[in-house]
Design brief:
- There is one protein chain.
- By secondary structure, the protein is an alpha+beta fold.
- It has one domain.
- Helix content is 22%, strand content 29%.
- The chain has an eight-stranded antiparallel beta sheet.
- The longest helix has 13 residues.
Length: 147
């Protein structure tokens, strides 16, 4: 019996991806982040959600293709380009391409999504995350500032 349990434990361990190590954002304990986190999809395209070790964070794909952190300082003024996906305006930082950083615009707290564009589509990822992120009310829109 002990051998069977040991073999089962080994199978369970090998069937799981390693936990993704992330740093929580400063406002990760904000109740709005909790509203986002409970609405996140388990799948982003072909990528399954993975376990993370930090509050208000999520990751998809093995290896990791998409990372989300909630609890960042809100952004209402920026020179970064702005796109709308679903019901959410996102600032686009392409300075580390092929990794693209998207930051929700004018939502407190802000949500950050980092997409490895060689593994996942940024547009598809943002569209699939918009239902969850839209739980945080917007205080302004990119189009209002010419973004």
């Amino acid at each position: 019996m002990r051998l069977v349990l040991l073999a089962l434990g080994t199978l369970l361990l090998t069937g799981c991806s390693a936990t993704v190590s992330l740093e929580p954002a400063a406002e990760a304990n904000d109740p709005n982040c909790a509203e986002v986190m409970v609405r996140l999809p388990q799948e982003l395209g072909e990528h399954s959600e993975r376990h993370t070790n930090a509050q208000a964070t999520a990751a998809w794909g093995d290896p990791t293709a998409v990372i989300l952190r909630c609890g960042l300082e809100p952004v209402v003024v920026s020179d970064l380009p702005c796109v709308t996906a679903g019901e959410v305006d996102w600032l686009v930082d392409d300075s580390l391409a092929p990794n693209y950083r998207f930051i929700s615009f004018a939502r407190f707290p802000a949500v950050e999504v980092i997409v490895d564009s060689e593994r996942a589509s940024g547009v598809t990822s943002l569209e699939l995350l918009s239902r969850a992120v839209s739980q945080i009310p917007a205080t302004a829109y990119c189009s209002a500032i010419g973004g």
